Amino acid sequence: MVADMISTTLPTFADVEAAAVRLAGQAVLTPLLESPLLNDRLGGRLLVKAEVLQRTGSFKFRGAFNRMSLIPEAERPRGVVAFSSGNHAQGVAAAARLLGLPATIVMPSDAPAIKVANTREWGARVVLYDRWKEDREAIGAGISAETGATLVRPYDDPYIMAGQGTIGLELIEQAKAASDGLDAVLAPCGGGGMIGGIALAVAARSPGTKVYAVEPAGFDDTARSLAAGERLSNAAGASSFCDALLAPMPGELTFAVNSAHLSGGFAVTDAEVAAAMAIARDNFKLVVEPGGAVALAAVLSTKMELGGRTIAVVCSGGNVDPEVYAKALASVR
Amino acid sequence: MVADMISTTLPTFADVEAAAVRLAGQAVLTPLLESPLLNDRLGGRLLVKAEVLQRTGSFKFRGAFNRMSLIPEAERPRGVVAFSSGNHAQGVAAAARLLGLPATIVMPSDAPAIKVANTREWGARVVLYDRWKEDREAIGAGISAETGATLVRPYDDPYIMAGQGTIGLELIEQAKAASDGLDAVLAPCGGGGMIGGIALAVAARSPGTKVYAVEPAGFDDTARSLAAGERLSNAAGASSFCDALLAPMPGELTFAVNSAHLSGGFAVTDAEVAAAMAIARDNFKLVVEPGGAVALAAVLSTKMELGGRTIAVVCSGGNVDPEVYAKALASVR
């Protein structure tokens, strides 16, 4: 039996508020940081939501815990299954440990070693697959069918989106305490779950604030889909070291939310991302993984100019292999 | 005229509480972080006070702002002068900017470049000196005598200690929310101002919690002085890459407080510190400078064993030159 339970209804702001209640005391209320020296250089106020400090080192715990809290008692012993390049894997594994559920995670064999190791350390069973030859969704669905485990999707699920949206709730409240107004929020975008959830919170709590998705160059499916008004895929053959953001196209539910709420998207190069990782180290003392640094990169590269305004960016994860981190930082001079 | 105004009275817990009021909205309430995976490995609960996220990238802003808030209006135009290897420099410079005071900072010519550059960027005038040939206290006192600037000492001042003590106030409150009890607090120790301020807060708010100073090997003057019951100097010729913690001997006021309140001290090697910097990167996603990582190093090296207990460490600063940071991390395998 497939205990998939996927809802096809779109998440609402009430779902985000309900997620915040479930996550209270479980998720870290991550700080919103600011560097006056960097503000001087950029000419405006840049606020950084330090989501690398979240449990498991990325925002993914929020959505996973929110979604998994809703699994009925009777289905919990059959556990959960998820497919993920790494951050969702750790989020699901950590939530499973807290909720006492068995977890199986399907991960690509070329996922960052730190992400695979941590997922195992959280107590999950890891099944590796070849991302060029095998279909992770089919593998996940197969395990779900065999074991009756609940499939926990990485983004195209209203409760996952609502969980990630709690970042937006916190951010708006923190920005109100720090600043007179918030002109825009930029967040990394893979499948679009985090940016969609954030957009719901911003629309409800700070309707004058614009929300933008940021993607790696070559993987800007959401930006192009928003411009075209329909879901478009990424061209084959692109590459980026932003391993967390390589989704092939926007999700159905995420695109429905994002096309209603986002003002657009930006794409950044690997070199721009590496430069952002160095600024995160020097000005914010944060270790940010490539995919977690794209929104910061969009501002630093002036794709999104600060121009005297107040803009918040989400640094969404910090799970980077030491060698990749060192190499990225060494490339910046 | 020397507007030194140094008090020779010891700080009290009431001074720490008063400092917290002055710092509200000015200092970052830094998070207390935890890594369940690391806890599993260590066998206990390790709480990390992420003071690298403080304004200016180290705790020093707290004491500097508290002390400088107390400069009488009439003396403010004459400004402040301070001597510092870097973190106190930035703290004083940032506080001066907020309070609208001119600041002159006397720094050793071999201070980390990032600390000198940031001090200038905060708007302070930097005077470099040769730490092997010149006496920084004499230079600072000379500038103070010439200009009438108020000398802001790095640690041996009750209001500096009280400001740093707000770390302890926050930490105790955060630990109470996170855990049933807190067995010990460990913090880096140079001149002893931070650990002394923290000890005052802990004694008042969590009297069952022990407090320990952690120093670099070869610079364990506080640990040896506590054991001997009198102030002892470090032997000449020692070296450490913990540039923030190379004070020659305990301060008068700091030693008076610390000998009354501390349970002892630990010394850690540079290699142990580098390993702690790597764990801070991997498990807490924090960039920690060598001197900021010594307390974490004391626990990771099992000089202070966790043994099922709950222990908090302060990671006190993150201002490390990129090359030093990369080299330290590359040394850990």
From TrEMBL, chains A, B:
Query: Which InterPro entries has this protein been placed in?
Result: Ser/Thr_deHydtase_PyrdxlP-BS (IPR000634), TrpB-like_PALP (IPR001926), TrpB-like_PALP_sf (IPR036052)
Task: State the needed cofactors, names only.
Answer: Mn(2+); Mg(2+); Ca(2+); pyridoxal 5'-phosphate
Answer whether the UniProt record assigns the keyword Cell cycle to this protein. no
What protein does this entry describe? Answer: Serine/threonine dehydratase
Q: Name one GO biological process term.
A: D-serine biosynthetic process
Q: Which UniProt keywords apply?
A: Lyase, Magnesium, Pyridoxal phosphate
| CDD domains hit by this protein | Thr-dehyd
Recorded hits in Pfam families, A to Z, give: PALP (PF00291)
The family annotation for this protein states: Belongs to the serine/threonine dehydratase family.
Chloroplast as a keyword of this entry, yes or no, is: no
Q: Where is the Tryptophan synthase beta chain-like PALP domain?
A: 30-317
